[in-house]
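Form 12-C: Joint structure prediction
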Amino acid sequence: MPGTRATNKAMFWRIIRRLLGANRGRLFVMLLALGAGAAVTAALLNLQVDAKRRLTSEFRAFGPNVIITPRAANSPNNPATLEESILQEIPVSSEMGRVESVGLLYSVANVTVDRLHAPLPDGQRTRTPAVLVGYSSKTFRDLLPAKTVEVSQLLGSNTRVCFVGVNAAHQLKVRAGDTLQLGGGNDCFVQEIANFGGVEDNQIFVDLPTAQKVTQFPGAISLAEVRVSGTPRQIEETIASLQQRLLGAEVRPIRQFTEGEAKIYNRISGLLTATIGIVLLLTALCVMAAMTNVAMERKMDVGLMKAIGGSIRRVLRLFLAEAALLGLAGGMIGAAAGIFLSIGLGKAVFGVAARPRLIVYPVAVALTIMVAILSAYPLRRLASIRPASVFRGET
Amino acid sequence: MFLRLVADSFGRRPRHKLLTGAALALGMGVATAALSVSLDVGDRLAKEFRSLGANLLVTPQSDSLPLEIGGVDYRPVNAGVYLPEADLPKLKTIFWHNNIMGFSPILEVPIEAWSPAPKSWITPAVRGKASLIGTWAQHNVEIPDGTTYLTGVVKTNPWWDVKGQWFGEDSRQCVVGVNLLKRIEAKLGDDLNVSSGDHAKWVTLKVVGVLSSGGSEDESVLAPLSVAQELAGRPGQYRKLYVSALTKPEDAFAKRDPQSFTPAEYDRWFCTPYISSIAFQIQQELLGTDVRVIRRVADGEGQILIRVRMLLWLVAGAALLAAALAVGASSAASVIERRTEIGLMKALGAGSGTVGFLLAAEQLVLAFVGGGAGYALGILLARLLGERIFGSAPEPSLIVFFVIITLAAGVTILGSALPLRRASRYEPAPILRGE
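Section 2 - Result
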């Protein structure tokens, strides 16, 4: 009989509406518990996806992790070099992260210093051998972390600037603002003295064209240093594809950094996943316990429905539908709040707002509905209660 | 009477109390686990970061400028200054000696290497110019306090991969870089003749291992420090020292110039394992040295540690928030459902204060029991996590316990305060009538 079914359906929804509206306090409490759970679920799921990706870009602070060298062996008299043009063959980005590269040309140059203050007479100026490095792009300074020791504003018309490692500066007795004669009529203005804490401290850095003129290796670089961002596997793939592109050169990972990064990345991502997993599980259980506690208070309602002839299956269906509706509402409100929360968290940690991932939203809502239904399930136990004893106030 | 009422409430509705307690315990368990992990994670991860190798480089103070390209120093051998090996045990006597995870001295000598294995006159032995790195592989250092300490490149350069084995200390053995081995056509187990660059001295070393490092060491011979000292004619000396130290990430305070500190600030700086203060202490101990922070390793480490720690704190914060809300909701529910009871008590002459006090006492008992159980649960989970990820469990912390108990009490009281206040405004009669 379609008519009865329609009436039944209308009655079903009416009871549900009443169940929800009967006690505003209780409704609020249930929505609060479910919403809090959903918010945390959505925020953490969103953050987890984003944080791992951001972490790999944090590794940029370690500087280059891949090196491209000529295949031929090196010797001081006849150094093997690469064509400068191979730098163009290095892609700017791989699938996930940026690929930053810099070409470097190494040579030993005899350097004399023109001091800005208290210049020495010509006779006392000595030529000191030092390692001169030409760099192909300004990104080199961002790529290799260093602490600036001394910096000077560019003076006059000398536009050729160089920066000097702290040890080299100490040995050459050069300060920021001085001018270095690099030989062959080339000079440069010392703009900065930097502390790298590595072999770079012994070197003088100048732009590539100048270095090429000094060493008379036009269009050549000694090697290229590359920073590849991404997960350990992505880095490996990028190295393989670089090697395929650059057949004349050897592409190899700087194992100190690729392996160290891989180890640290795996630890951190494991930690993050495990922590978030545990937090989510316990939050679900906690919400479930709170909800069950509320559901158990419905004994009176169940007793009444049974007393007026409701079958336990129908009564249970009513309560489950109520729980599902609550889960849907709480989940939707909570997940929306959670996504905003994760955007804020991402901003706080990484300085960049986490990108909201839409997949997180339905997942969080579905999980909340599941928790809500599961927590109404203990009502099944009420099948055995006798309506009369409930009304008499017996427990 | 008061206690009896409280006890009675627990005895009469054990299932309700159990569920509220369970919600509390689970919520506080989340909070404990997240807090313990984030409290502990800094030290653990700092240890992991040591897989990047040394973060401090010690060089002679008045050395001439090294002409190093691609790992080969083109300076003449007799140029430059050397440091005494005998000073090295002092490294383990500095204030932060426990934070020194390893160190290895390096003495490089330009050499020519060839394999003396009989070759036919058509294919003469291939000679290769390279550099010999004299260092410690696994060396027992005698520390002034009478103990010994095992250190060497195995600790400071963990990414070095040796096929075969490391050379024994003070032996005539060597480990050869994989590229050099190919170049001079030698193989594992061969004897290798090595002469110093000026051919003044030569020794025969047995190749016991092949090194692949991914760096310039692939082009060199690694041998015990004593062999390098003999070849260079510098007994008991070394030139570079790599130190791997556990440090605290540098904050704004550590980045300031130590010269500008007040005495109190100086003490604080000295007694914190910042990389700059460890470098300073090493410099004080090893005279005539220049201790530099390898920025590449140290800066990246600090930055990532700070981010990860912050990330975990935020995860812990989110967990706390969710647990607090859920627990608060649960205790609110348990008060709401007892309106009839509250009405009855008021009808019998109890004031709002007495009723509130009674309910608060009940909630507090629950909070302490649930919070305690939650703490135990959380510690267990944190242990499990720690063991899985870092191989050792975090120490249970008393601070976390107090934080959790306080939180549990605060959340339950806050959660029940709101409905209680509303309930106190009700007239008993309509409630009892069921309206």
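Section 3 - Comments
Chain B touches chain A through 84 residues (CB under 8 Å). Residues 2-45+308-433 of chain B form one domain.
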